Amino acid sequence: MTITYDNYQENSFVVNQEEILETTDISQAFKNWRKQWQAIAKQMRQATDADTLFQVTTKAVREIIAGDRALIYRWHNLDTGVVLAESKTIGWTPAFGENLSTIVFGVDTTPDYSEPITITDINQVEPTPYQRQLWEKFQVKASVSVPILVEGELWGLLAVHQCGMSRQWQEAEINLLTQVATELTYALQRFQFQKEQQQQAQAKKAVGKVIDKIVRVANVDQFFQTSTQEVRNLLRCDRVALYQFNSDWSGEFIAESVGNGWVRLVGPDIRTVWADTHLQDTKGGRYARSESFTVDDIYKAGLSQCHIDILEQFEAKAYMIAPVFSGEKLWGLLAAYQNSGARKWQEWEISFLAQIGMGFGVA
């Protein structure tokens, strides 16, 4: 069937009725998508913290997509993570707070999720036994997952599950989820910036309080012990240690505060000497130039194997080091260690440790 129109020049042209209907459908679908997106974005932008953001996002997404479960998942490492927020309809097993293998969303490891992953029917794929076990536990019949990026790196997933039946996910639905994930990225980066600003302000105040408490200690040994304890309390790390250089630029740990269960470097019958050949050759290296040094993951920092071997003896997985001066001479190093795993040190933490090191003024 065709319809004939006359233009203003009285030249006729033919338009296919199906094309008109298709164009109308696309236009209406776009209007619906924009309306849905605006409804979700409005709620997301009213959130004042991450927990509220996650709750309103999962609820709004589940209702608009009409899925049985919507969740936000954050990676711990390449193949596992935790469900930070969930909205689900009644009758399905809750996933909130669960530490789950990434394979529950369809593929094995984090890098595989740089693009949306869709499963329309779990019976049409060949899962691993563990994958099938997870799907059965959470009654997943179909799923769609889109990546959430923070500072350009994969942070987690926004996922929707269909639990009652299989489902053919529409392109408009995937686009909507992708847009929501992008909004999550902006919000998380904004919250992170606000948090860092607050932490920097708190750290600035804490430096004065810590140094004031330290300088009130008359006994030198107690001075060192109080110093490491106060710094570890504020940084909430596994170990803070003070290292003193010898005249040949070797040195030893002379004080520490360490959490329960970790090997001790200092004690009545414990003496830990570390002769770092690089520091000996360079007479303190970067630290003599008042520079700090941070490592978020000892296995990804390009350290020499012998250096890693020593750090493994200390049970360290991440660390940061600041110089300690006596007058203008490099006296030693103040180090904070994370033993439980890799840790991304924040700018305020690095600045705090450096200021404490400078504030020591060891005589």
From TrEMBL:
A Pfam family matched in the record: GAF
Coiled coil: none
Top-rank taxon, per record: Bacteria
PROSITE patterns: PHYTOCHROME_2 (PS50046)
Limits of the Phytochrome chromophore attachment site domain: 49-183, 219-359
Signal peptide start-end: none
Protein name: Chemotaxis protein
Organism: Fischerella thermalis CCMEE 5330
Source taxonomy: Bacteria, Bacillati, Cyanobacteriota, Cyanophyceae, Nostocales
